[in-house]
Structure to design on (468 residues):
């Protein structure tokens, strides 16, 4: 037993020294000492292990053996969990999942399909969220949509890339919709409203068109990344000259988080603080296109390429032996739990949100349109049952706060969470087929989801208007 005790201490010391040498190699030789801040914690950890291993020579034999058993058992248990999580990642990996479905899946990265289609059509572009300009200094114009009259690549969450021909103002509409004398529905919102990641007949505007007379119009002012102030700005800038019957404000539950960023942009603040403010964007489309094309060619193309390289390396890392040894999966899960439950920011701009919605309502009604507020919830709520079962979680609290604000403003509300998804036996059937990596970073509706939810919106509006 005495020899075993000494052997344990010697092994512990040798492993600690090897770890220190490896850290030194990575920091001082491989990275040439340029990444010392990153490796400092590993230096401290390895030195602490060396000190503990030296102390272990003087610890009572029986206590040392008990400590060794506990530590060994803990490490083995952690690696069993890590192995299970790694296997789960493999089951959700690209190649494995594709083998298990009956559809043909376009596995190309967004940058790759962009380059492929550019060979056929040099004018093809990709969607670029207005948020990419949110921190730009000395702005003289702030885009609220994409490049006009271009074939535009959007996203892939259902096995194919959604691609559309942008209209004269850079939105996802046929140009002819702007020429109709009556607009039955004017949509305002973010990527869900924009039509991610389905093609036009299957998105919200496409489904609405199938329910009304073809002479009536449906105009979509939604754009990916937009949030309350950019949505209100879009409403003011692009409200059509035609008779608009209804404005549908489609709110996604994280929009209020992005509102905090919008409040730091002076042009967007002008929309809140000055009812007469306008950028006259309808008359400046050439200027907008020039700005957006320059951004695409100088920054966004390279960013897409780098994102592809980074993601591919990261994904390989997540399924690698090195990742397993580092317990990357366990560390990621711990980070998610901590981030979800202990790092919630209580200082959300509910007052500015209320101000924005009230301005949008008043603007719509002053132009003869009825105003409806539609609440969309995140697919992750139905994985974790946060909105369904948790009264304390911030998502649930924010949902209640938003609904309360809308009710206080006396706005007709359609709560998709409460009215459609909460009590549905399989709410995830409405979302994209691949809600996990590598295909689903966001979790938008699939064709079924857009259809069912648009039908509910259509019928709920009929119900409201039959009462009034």
């Amino acid at each position: 037993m005495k020899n075993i005790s000494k052997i344990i201490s010697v092994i512990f010391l040798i492993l600690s020294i090897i770890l220190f040498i490896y850290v030194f190699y990575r920091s001082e030789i491989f990275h040439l000492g340029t990444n010392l801040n990153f490796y400092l914690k590993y230096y401290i950890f390895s030195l602490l292990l060396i000190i503990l291993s030296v102390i272990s020579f003087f610890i009572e034999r029986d206590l040392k053996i008990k400590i060794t058993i506990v530590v060994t058992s803990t490490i083995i248990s952690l690696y069993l969990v890590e192995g299970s999580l790694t296997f789960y990642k493999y089951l959700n990996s690209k190649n494995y999942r594709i083998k298990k479905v009956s559809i043909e899946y376009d596995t190309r990265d967004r940058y790759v399909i962009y380059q492929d289609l550019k060979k056929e059509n040099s004018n093809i572009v990709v969607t670029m969220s207005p948020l990419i300009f949110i921190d730009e200094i000395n702005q003289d114009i702030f885009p609220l949509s994409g490049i006009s009259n271009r074939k535009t690549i959007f996203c892939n969450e259902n096995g194919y890339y959604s691609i559309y021909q942008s209209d004269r103002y850079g939105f996802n509409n046929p140009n002819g919709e702007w020429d109709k004398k009556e607009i039955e529905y004017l949509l305002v919102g973010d990527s869900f409203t924009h039509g991610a990641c389905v093609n036009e007949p299957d998105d919200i505007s496409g489904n609405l068109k199938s329910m009304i007379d073809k002479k009536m119009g449906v105009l979509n002012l939604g754009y990916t990344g937009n949030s309350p102030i950019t949505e209100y700005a879009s409403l003011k800038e692009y409200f059509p000259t035609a008779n608009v019957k209804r404005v549908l404000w489609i709110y996604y539950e994280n929009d209020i988080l992005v509102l905090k960023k919008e409040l730091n942009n002076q042009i967007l603040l002008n929309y809140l603080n000055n009812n007469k403010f306008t950028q006259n964007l309808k008359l400046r489309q050439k200027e907008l296109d020039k700005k957006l094309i320059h951004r695409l060619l100088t920054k966004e193309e390279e960013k897409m390429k780098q994102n592809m390289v980074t993601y591919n390396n990261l994904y390989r890392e997540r399924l690698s032996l090195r990742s397993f040894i580092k317990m990357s999966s366990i560390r990621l899960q711990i980070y998610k739990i901590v981030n979800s439950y202990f790092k919630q920011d209580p200082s959300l701009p509910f007052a500015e949100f209320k101000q924005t919605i009230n301005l949008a309502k008043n603007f719509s009604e002053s132009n003869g349109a009825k105003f409806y507020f539609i609440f969309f919830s995140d697919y992750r709520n139905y994985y974790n049952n946060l909105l369904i079962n948790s009264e304390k979680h911030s998502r649930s609290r924010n949902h209640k706060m938003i609904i309360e604000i809308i009710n206080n403003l006396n706005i007709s509300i359609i709560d998709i969470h409460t009215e459609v998804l909460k009590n549905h036996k399989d709410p995830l059937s409405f979302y994209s087929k691949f809600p996990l990596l590598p295909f689903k970073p966001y979790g938008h509706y699939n064709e079924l989801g857009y259809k069912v939810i648009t039908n509910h919106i259509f019928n709920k509006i009929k119900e409201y208007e039959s009462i009034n």
